[in-house]
Amino acid sequence: MSAYQSLKEEVYEANMELPKRGLVLYTFGNVSGIDRKAGVVAIKPSGVPYEQLQPQDIVIVDLENRVVEGKMRPSSDTLTHTLLYRRFPNIGGVCHTHSTYAVAWAQAKLPIPNLGTTHADHLVAAVPCTDEMTDEMIKGNYELETGHQILNAFRDGNLSYEEVEMVLVACHGPFTWGKNAAKAVYNSAVLEELARMAQLTLSINPNASTIRQALIDKHYFRKHGTNAYYGQEGY
C-alpha cells in the first residue's frame, strides 16, 4: 500500500464531488491536497475522465513539481496548485473548475459583487478577478503565471487568502482553496452559486447595489471568528 494512501483517498473523494455537484464536464477541473509534514501534494492525473478515476490514479508530487509516486502525468494545472501551497501556508486543498456561472464572470473579467446575505455568509468582500494575462506571460510558463495572477489579486493587502478562499482568473475560470481538499470543493460549489445568484440579480435589476457593510458584517461574523454563534460544534 502507498505511504500516501490516506491522502490519495481524500483527494480522490474530493475530485469525485465535482461531477456530483455539477461543477465539471468530462475531464474539466481538478482537486489537490497537501501533506505539509511530508512535503507532498496529491492531485488528479491529467485528462482522466471522472468515471474512470480510481484512488490509485492520484499522483503524488513534491512542492517543486517532481513526481514522487504515480504512473500518470499529474494535472496540467499542477504548477498553479503548488505555487499556491508555497505562498498560502495555511491552506490544505486547492480546487479548479470550469463551472458555468463562475467562468462567465471570469470571461467578463469582473469581480462578483456582494449583493446579498448569502454572499456575506461566506465573504466580506467581492469575489476578486485577476488582471488579464499578458502575451509574454501566456508564452512563458503559463500554469505558473496563472498562479502568479492569483497571488497578484491579493498583493495589496486588502484581501486575505484565509478570509477570501476563492478567485476568478480572468478569461479562464475559478480557483478555490481551504483547510483541506473537501473544503476547497465546498468553496467551489459556493462560488458557483454566488456567481449564479449575482447574474440573476443583475438581470432583474442591472442597478442593484452591494449590501450595506453592517449587514455584511452581521452575516459574516455570526458564522466566522471568535464570537460566531451559527451552527453546531463538529458540523
Question: Can you put this structure into words, describing what you see?
Answer:
- This protein has 235 residues and is an alpha+beta fold.
- The chain contains eight helices and seven strands.
- The protein has helices at residues 5-20, 78-87, 100-108, 117-122, 135-139, 142-153, 181-204, 213-221; strands spanning 30-35, 40-43, 59-62, 67-69, 93-96, 166-169, 173-178.
- Strand 3 (59-62) and strand 4 (67-69) form a beta hairpin.
Choose one word for the global shape: globular
Helix content: 25-40%
CATH-assigned fold name: L-fuculose-1-phosphate Aldolase
Spatial arrangement of strands, main beta sheet: 4-3-2-1-5-7-6
Give the SSE map:
Elements: H1 5-20, E1 30-35, E2 40-43, E3 59-62, E4 67-69, H2 78-87, E5 93-96, H3 100-108, H4 117-122, H5 135-139, H6 142-153, E6 166-169, E7 173-178, H7 181-204, H8 213-221
Antiparallel strand pairs: 1-2, 1-5, 2-3, 3-4, 5-7, 6-7
Helix pairs in contact: 1-7, 2-6, 3-7
